[in-house]
Design goal:
Elements: H1 4-18, H2 21-30, H3 37-44, H4 48-61, E1 64-69, E2 72-77, H5 82-89, H6 91-129
Helix pairs in contact: 3-4, 5-6
């Protein structure tokens, strides 16, 4: 059961987590699901060390949890109630950020396809010459 003291502790930790704009952006990005520092740094256009430091703070605040997946560590929102609260607090930002993430993913996929086609063409050209 949540007591007043524990409720205040939760509010204080969430306040610390949300006090920094970068941490807020990371939390909003994690609304779409777990992510790793490398992906977050690309999506948010931040350096990886900065993202990792903010993720450590968010983990220490209890707002995200880390899970190792092979050599990577992925982060996700710890409390299942938090996404609903964040969406209520900033509904328009949530929609805009999700749209931006969809665009970044589409561009990344397109770029990967282009790189694969170029590699195949180079390989075929080298094979034809040789």
């Amino acid at each position: 059961m949540l007591t007043i003291a524990s409720g205040l502790d939760v509010m204080n930790r969430l306040g610390r987590a949300m006090a920094d704009p970068t941490r807020s952006r990371i939390l909003m990005t994690l609304l779409d699901g777990p992510s790793c520092p490398a992906l977050l740094s690309r999506e948010l256009e931040l350096n990886r060390a900065n993202v990792s430091n903010h993720l450590t703070c968010l983990r220490d605040c209890g707002t995200v949890v880390a899970e190792s997946e092979g050599r990577q560590t992925c982060y996700e929102i710890a409390d299942p109630h938090l996404p609903g609260a964040l969406t209520v607090l900033v509904p328009e930002r949530t929609a805009a950020l999700r749209q931006r993430i969809r665009i970044v993913v589409a561009i990344t996929i397109t770029w990967n396809v282009i790189e694969a086609v170029v590699a195949i063409n180079r390989s075929e050209a080298a094979h034809a010459v040789g």
